[in-house]
Design goal:
Layout (H helix, E strand, L loop, with lengths): L6 H20 L15 H11 L12 H8 L5 H7 L4 H24 L1 H12 L3 H19 L3 H9 L6 E3 L15 E3 L9 H22 L5 E6 L1 H6 L3 H10 L1 E5 L5 E6 L2 H4 L5 E6 L1 H6 L1 H15 L9 H11 L4 H4 L3 E3 L9 H6 L7 H11 L1 E2 L12 E2 L1 H8 L4 E6 L11 H17 L4 E6 L6 E4 H13 L2 H8 L3 H21 L4 H13 L1 H10 L1 H16 L7 H19 L4
Parallel strand pairs: 1-2, 3-6, 3-10, 6-7, 10-11
Antiparallel strand pairs: 4-5, 7-8, 8-9, 11-12
Helix pairs in contact: 2-5, 3-5, 4-5, 5-6, 6-7, 9-11, 11-14, 18-20, 20-23, 22-23, 23-26, 24-25, 24-27, 25-26, 26-27
The structure holds benzoic acid (BEZ) and magnesium ion (MG).
The site of magnesium ion (MG) has 2 residues, from loops.
Length: 578
């Protein structure tokens, strides 16, 4: 590489690299676990306020702070700077200028208050105080909400059987109204899902997703599998549901009680692309909370499949007709909403991975289908399916999938923080691979990044690894929690391994660097061992498992050190002395 690059190409690569560094630098990460009843330090609050201020909030007539600054400076929109900064040094400098001022204004707000911060922006960027004042008023609300949170007091009241004030459940960035915390979280009215705001947000995300696929594969995906979770759709008021509708080209229609119970077809001219066939794999929590929404999605599938449109504009209809040609009924051919059997939850793929019970990777996909092959919706006569076991129908639908997708909606829980992302998105991807004969492209939508940001799974694993697992700011934050912190680090390594097991999505350098950081570094290994020898042994064992299963091409010398360390930890835990 490098020898044949022109100056312009070299320039572009350097810019693209710099852009990735900015992305890593700007990422909000938890720096330690939440301690019940305790609020974060000034640095964390500044990061949080900046992120809260970086979104337009039309419901408050408020524009994102970076947009106000860009406009004040007479620059193109901040969204444009973001898009163009990867290929233009000038745009990059402008973007950094905007971000620097947003940072300075937030610091001024925390140090000297809203008026001084507004004055700073008026002087430095010509932002009218009337505009920035709305943003600082929101920041002030967030600050007061954080201060006014009484988690311990509320817990004590709850334990005494006393009244605890209710409040919405969401992410602070998504919905600052969740503050103060320590309230009795209420969820959602399923008939309001998806909200008009969620439906509007979903259009650019779906466009970015389809465009990314088209760029990489040369065409739109004919069929996608989507994972829908309950808590996410509560927090976002139905982002995932809205995206599924957009993919098919349908919008929710409200009845005269303002309930989203009907769908309306978006005309092909408005869509400007084919209708995508979507297989929906839905969590048990979603099924319990969003029965009405599952029916809405099923209704959309049936309506779109029945449209009189040419096959190249309506992939869903074409696939349903093909299946009918093979002898299926319309009901069978149009089954797209799957979840667990009634009363069951989860895929168990995470347990199979964590316990190392699998021989071949396909077993993980088979387990996913066994757990998730229960069909929901209504048949042609309007009869409810209520979770009818349908592994063959699900298998046929998955066999056509070219891409799988899920949303990430909070900075606090990413794809290596918990085992649920790999059990769902990894599990369905492995099931697709077996049935379609090719690994699907796997994407994640990031609602927290500015703009509609879609990343591949591999990019997301790298980003999480850089910003969390291998980031001293993150792991030192965890280690301050002692025993529990080491367990968190071990979970991250195991969850990363889950992406190898289900989707072959982990680069060798990730395991190399995990081994180097936590095991080959004697001082670090010593700290982990003292704090939590059990989790330390599991972490080392997981690295050995990755190498043993051929998922990590480790150097022989490194493996030797890992084996010795593992044996030493075993002896220590079993009380064997040399
Ligand atoms: C859900 O919200 O549906 C969900 C939460 C955790 C794990 C799996 C699903
Ligand atoms: Mg590999």
């Amino acid at each position: 590489m490098g020898r044949n690059l022109t100056d312009a190409e070299r320039e572009r690569r350097v810019l693209a690299l710099y852009e990735q560094l900015l992305e890593i630098e700007g990422r909000l990460i938890p720096t330690g676990l939440h301690v019940f009843g305790r609020r974060g330090g000034t640095g964390e609050r500044a990061d949080l306020l900046r992120l809260v201020a970086s979104f337009d909030r039309p419901e408050r007539g408020l524009r994102a702070l970076p947009e106000l600054i860009a406009a004040g400076l007479g620059l193109p929109a901040y969204q444009t700077l973001l898009t163009e900064s990867a290929a233009s040094e000038r745009r990059l400098a402008e973007r950094e200028r905007v971000e620097g001022l947003a940072r300075a204004a937030t610091a001024e707000f925390l140090a000297a208050g809203a008026e001084r911060a507004a004055a700073l922006l008026a002087a430095a960027a010509g932002v009218p105080a009337a505009e920035s004042g709305k943003v600082f008023a929101l920041m002030l609300e967030v600050e007061r909400g954080l201060e006014g949170s009484d988690e311990l007091g509320a817990l004590a009241r709850a334990l005494r059987g006393e009244y605890v004030e209710p409040g919405p459940g969401a992410d602070i960035v998504q919905n600052p109204e969740i503050l103060p915390t320590g309230r009795n979280t209420y969820a959602v009215n399923p008939y309001h899902i998806p909200s008009p705001a969620a439906f509007a947000r979903a259009e650019p995300m779906v466009a970015a997703l389809l465009e990314r696929h088209r760029r990489e594969a040369g065409h739109y995906p004919e069929t996608m599998a989507m994972v829908l979770w309950g808590l996410d759709n509560i927090k976002t008021q139905g982002d995932g549901v809205a995206q599924a509708l957009w993919l098919m080209g349908a919008r929710p229609r409200r009845d005269n009680l303002n309930r989203a119970t009907e769908v309306e077809i978006i005309p092909p001219e408005r869509l400007g692309r084919p209708r995508i066939d979507v297989v929906l794999t839905v969590s048990g929590i979603f099924r319990d909370l969003f029965g009405a929404t599952m029916e809405l999605l099923d209704k959309a599938v049936r309506r779109v499949a029945a449209l009189d449109e040419p096959g190249e504009l309506n992939c869903l209809r074409r696939h349903v007709l093909e299946q009918i040609g093979e002898g299926a009924s319309f009901d069978e051919a149009a089954t797209r909403v799957f979840s667990n059997a009634a009363g069951n939850y989860g895929t168990n793929v995470n347990f199979m991975v964590m316990d190392g019970q699998w021989e071949e990777a396909r077993a993980l996909g088979e387990l996913f289908v066994t757990r998730k092959c229960f069909a929901y919706g209504r048949d042609a006569t309007g009869r409810r399916l209520e979770g009818r076991e349908a592994p063959a129908l699900m298998g046929r639908a998955l066999a056509r999938v070219e891409a799988t997708y899920q949303n990430i909606d909070t900075a606090e829980i990413g794809i290596t923080d918990v085992d649920h992302y790999f059990e769902y998105l990894g599990g369905v991807s492995r099931a697709v691979e077996t049935r379609a004969g090719a690994r699907p492209r796997i994407y994640l939508g990031d609602a927290l990044a500015p703009g509609a940001k879609v990343r591949t799974l591999e990019e997301t694993v790298r980003l999480e690894t850089r910003t969390k697992t291998l980031n001293p700011k993150w792991y030192e934050g965890m280690l301050r929690h002692g025993f529990r912190g080491v367990a968190e680090i071990e979970h991250h390594v195991t969850n990363t391994f889950g992406w190898s097991a289900t989707a072959d999505a982990v680069d060798d350098w990730i395991y190399d660097d995990v081994a180097r950081t936590y095991v080959l570094d004697e001082t670090m290994l010593g700290r982990l061992r003292v704090l939590n020898p059990d989790s330390t042994r599991s972490l080392v064992g997981r690295l050995l498992e990755a190498a043993g299963r051929g998922l990590w091409a480790a150097e022989a010398g490194v493996l030797e050190r890992l084996r010795e360390t593992y044996a030493g930890l075993e002896d220590e835990l079993e009380g064997v002395t040399a």
